[in-house]
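Human: You know discrete backbone vocabularies at least as well as I do. Show me how you would write down a chain together with its backbone fold. No explanation is needed for now; the record alone will do.

Assistant:
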Amino acid sequence: MIIRIIDWCAGNRFLVFTGTVVLTVWGIWAMTVTPLDAVPDISDVQVIVSTEWMGRSPDIIEDQITYPIVTALLSAPRVRTVRGFTDFGISYVYVIFEDGTDIYWARSRVVEYLQGIRGRLPEGSNPTIGPDATGVGWVFQYALVDETGEHNLAELRGMQDWFLRYALASVEGVAEVASIGGFVKQYQVNLDPNKLAAYDKSVKDVVQAIRASNNEVEGRLLEFSGREYMVRGRGYLTSLEDIAAVSLGANERGTPVRVGDVADVQLGPDLRRGVAELDGKGEVVGGIVVMRFGENALRVIDRVKTKLQEIQGSLPGGVRVIPTYDRSGLINESIGTLRRTLIEEAIVVSLVILVFLFHIRSALVPILALPIAVVASFIPMYYLDVNSNIMSLGGLALAIGVLVDASIVMVENAYRHVSEPEEPVAFEDQPRVIIGAAKQVARAIFFSLAIIIVSFVPVFLLEAQEGRMFRPLAFTKTSAMGLASLLAITLVPVLMTIFIRGRRLRPESVNPVSRFFTWLYAPILRGALRFKWTALLVNFAVVPLTIPLLFVIGSEFMPPLYEGSMLYMPTSPPGMSITEATRLLQVQDKLLRQVPEVAQVFGTVGRGTTPTDNTPMGMVNTTVVLKPREQWRAGMTFEQLQADMDAQLQFPGFPNVWTQPIRNRLDMLLTGIKTPVGIKIFGSDLDVIQGLGQQVERILQQVPGTRSVYAERVSQGYFTDIRIDRLAIARHGLTIEDVQDVIQSALGGENVTQTVEGRERYPVNVRYARQFRESIPALERVLVKTPMGASIPLSQVAEITLTTGPAMVRDEDAQLAGYVYVDTVTTDIGGYVEAAKAALAQQLQLPTGYTLQWTGQYEFQVRARERLKILVPLVFFIIFMLLYMTFHSASEATIVMLSVVYAMTGGVILQWLLGYNFSVAVWVGYIALYGVAVQTGVVMVVYLHEALDKRLRQSSEITEHDVRQATIDGSVLRLRPKLMTVTVVMASLVPIMWSAGVGSDVMKPIAAPIIGGMITSTIHVLIITPVIFYIMKMRALRRGTLRPSLMTH
């Protein structure tokens, strides 16, 4: 079929050129509309359920909300894991679905199951699902600041909540805009219990009166003088005076009693659980823009910036929106780095082709085909929803050298047939000879494509995070190769008939490059054939020498991607007040901002108003935006900078954790762990879990490579317990609910209604004034009204004590859990975990019913390693079978497979020299290497068979000298195409290795094994493969079984 395609294209050149133009234009269009992002979205299909129940402690919310939701959702279809997290006043449930689940189908199932349990949840709680976003959805953050000092934090928060938030939420592609920091304005009714008693009023009376006094109604229509008048009853509360004037009834003398008579009504801040700070200069109001699932990150950010520019003029004078995190810079830099690399690779490949062919017009054929194949690769990317990112463009970068292999083989073969014909060829017959030469190698092209595609099967079969990370790379590399091969049998033969024709084409023997390499290679090969057993011994000895390197090279899940920003995440033990946390946050930010390489510091403590942020109070999230590397101090590296910052920021009780924004978002939402390595402890008692966590913390602090380790103090929250005496309340005719109503409303405070001020809404809170609830004696004097109308102090019916309890509650699949966060100074995560496991095995004794699970990126690393242990041998077997079907000989298939062993040898050596750990990225490089190495071996064996079969057909009698000479001819006379394909592959990867831009740190570990492996594989194929071939054919000659190869028929 391939031969028929070549014949048809040769006879329909106009249609071929027209199709190529259409394909190129189509590819350019697809390239401009394909979504851009920095990295693939590797997060799980996840739905977040959040439930606010303000004022309640974590254990109450866990028992009444989180646990019922978790257990209900565990039975939903395609659910893999359900994690719960309960903090003060709020519950989060993370529902993780199996790979391949449609996110909107998953959201529908969660809503469906939530409907079934709403009746079991307490009154006042309302579970809602989070935005349709993913772990990398936080694409833009900003701070709202007032440079004039005329607007306080409450006013800035009002601008954010009621103006900016909705303006940005209307932007296409934005799923949610959240707020953090500042103060939410609140109308506070601070009750005086003594006045309440004097007027014979209760807290409930005040609450009911305020609620009943904040409403507007309609009275339908009235007609006057031929017009309709809509009737409205105006009654919204709009000011402090309105609230103070709310009537509570009248006393026995008929005098009206108002709220202002029993309470001080004032403006104040609502309870807040999040603070934002900028550059150590003081508090600000922050905003978080969350991108919708599947959107183009760069375009969404551009739209957000455009909208901010539009509304800047609507803000009060001096109020500015300052970006504090902008992923578009990372996207543009990383994509720009790879685009520059692609251009540099194309130039290098073109130069190599020109040097080896030494004929400009012939070199133009693969040079023209290369950009067309690259551009056309964007067509399947666009239609199959593969974004342009580091990995997908990295696949093209890895493929460029291989893309031109098919064209090179065709062009070189056609050039040889025209320049060195066996019989004289007229000028007008040259197209026929060229097409014949193209058809001669068509089968080899198809086979080499099949080998490389099959070699990449393990990448397509990787699962979960590692699969989502590297499948785009495998997809673009494979699709580009497929398109290049299509062009090789359609466009390339047509171009060859135009460019290779000539009356005086110089033969290969006069090419100075070919002559030099032939002069260098021929004596080495002859010497190897003469001392064949010595050559084999030296060759085989290389493999054992590299085995020790396998044990000294570290391991990790992925090489870290430099994002241009750091994330500083220390955590304090539970119980730190928001005032103290804010003070420490400002001190930390000020110290960070003084570092010369730092451009901006935006710190937060606590959580924002989004289900995608479950940060507890006491956990700091400080985004440190770094200056461009060219502005850093001489010799400063990212690792050294991080170490210097860590040394400056040593606060007692605040263990430091350093990560990066995207990496942290993925780690947190994928595993719940904010560090690359963590431990989950499961059991039934939080006190025991906390004790085990602290033991783990002490043990791991002694393990080399530990920067910091922190075990969550899950049961170390501080509580004021009010234990109601059932016998005492019975004597007064009270119920538990009567007393708890007082605790909940008078002490805890209750947002009983909200004001309507144009578009803005603010809560009205009722509670005792601070002086009546700020100490235990004051709490004991809180009055409880009995059914008989008397008011008794709370101390008569309850005991008040200070205790400790769960500051937060975590569970996974309905099991209680505690987390231990581990931050390391080493990139050898695998080696660190093995050492830590050994230390824990010796020093930690787990009680019955309690388990310990390592998680974080180590979890992904182990899963990928176990998967590859199965897939890589399977692929080797498939490649071997393809080789067997091609050569019809197991021994010759084995010869080719040996090139893989020696390819890995060179890859390991270069990997060790460059200091790269084993990671999924490195293994992807090895997988790519296997296909190219096999392809090189196949080319050599094919040419050796061609030379030998030619002699077998020319003579019925063949001698040992003939076999030897055929081996030399097949190796030396066809040296140019072998060196061209190998050199093009290696040279195309060199720009990746010298690149220093954003994204290069991910691609270098992939490219390094390929370059190192191609060096040793090429040496093996050029020298050892002919030696083994010669030995095998000599044995066949002696046995009388030497026959022409079926492969060349």
Notes: The chain has 35 helices and 30 strands.
